[in-house]
């Protein structure tokens, strides 16, 4: 195996970055985790004071978002990677024998399909419309804002229905193939958003709840939650 690069990972507790956090632990890859916080302009900066919001924007994430991910190679070359699906795929490629990106070519395509759909459709469109309608319309227009938020909610529910239906099909209980993949880590994070951000009773998604409970029992999830200082949802 080629030597692993040094990894610095920037996160915000319970945000989408948690999928990356889980996968780092799942693969037992050494990394330095840096929590972020909002500065007075509501821009993310490193909570340990190592990077101001401007430095974080210039060196880590062009939009001041998490996950932030910086790799430093043995020759000193430093690269940042943005976008959750891209970071997850890169991590899976560092430990290919674990097949976290899927085992066969078909599974690889399916894992990519899930993580892009969760990141793009469920998080990027549906959750953004619900949580940040100003990104889509003039939010001072209450009617427009409420319309976008209602659309976001409908799409979030359609997304959870889709995951639930998929998990109801006979299979391993994971989203793709016979074992845990990148897709499952991301789906766990978005399950908890349903409770915390959208206020849903997620227990109504029976298979998805059972799936989230099973994932939360894994050491990787326990460690990510502990690092982030957030409680487990299930006991
Ligand atoms: N498309 C990006 C989305 C990242 C994103 O939306 N991150 C959110 C947290 S889940 C964020 O950092 N928001 C800015 C903030 O909280 O100030 C990705 O996949 O990484």
Automatic annotation (TrEMBL):
Residues 4-99 form the GST N-terminal domain. CDD domains: GST_C_Beta, GST_N_Beta. Residues 104-235 form the GST C-terminal domain. SUPFAM superfamilies: GST C-terminal domain-like, Thioredoxin-like. Belongs to the GST superfamily. PANTHER family: GLUTATHIONE S-TRANSFERASE GSTA, GLUTATHIONE S-TRANSFERASE-RELATED. This is Glutathione S-transferase. The lineage of its organism: Eukaryota, Fungi, Dikarya, Ascomycota, Pezizomycotina.
């Amino acid at each position: 195996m080629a030597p692993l690069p040094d990894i610095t990972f920037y996160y915000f507790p319970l945000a989408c970055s948690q999928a990356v956090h889980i996968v780092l632990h799942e693969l037992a890859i050494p990394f330095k985790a840096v929590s972020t916080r909002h500065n007075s302009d509501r821009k993310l900066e490193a909570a340990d004071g190592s990077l101001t919001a401007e430095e974080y924007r210039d060196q880590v994430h062009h939009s001041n978002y998490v996950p932030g991910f910086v790799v430093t190679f043995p020759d000193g070359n430093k690269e940042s990677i943005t976008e959750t699906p891209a970071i997850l795929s890169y991590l899976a490629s560092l430990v290919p024998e674990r097949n976290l990106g899927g085992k066969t070519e078909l599974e690889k395509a399916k894992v990519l399909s899930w993580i892009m759909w969760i990141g793009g459709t469920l998080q990027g469109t549906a959750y953004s419309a619900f949580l940040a309608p100003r990104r889509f319309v003039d939010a001072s227009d209450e009617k427009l804002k409420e319309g976008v938020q209602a659309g976001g909610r409908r799409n979030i529910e359609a997304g959870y229905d889709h995951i639930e239906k998929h998990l109801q099909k006979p299979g391993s209980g994971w989203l793709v193939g016979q074992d845990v993949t990148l897709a499952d880590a991301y789906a766990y994070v978005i399950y908890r958003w349903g409770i915390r951000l959208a206020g849903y009773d997620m227990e109504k998604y029976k298979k998805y709840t059972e799936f989230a409970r099973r994932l939360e029992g894994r050491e990787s999830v326990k460690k990510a939650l502990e690092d982030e200082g957030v409680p487990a949802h299930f006991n």
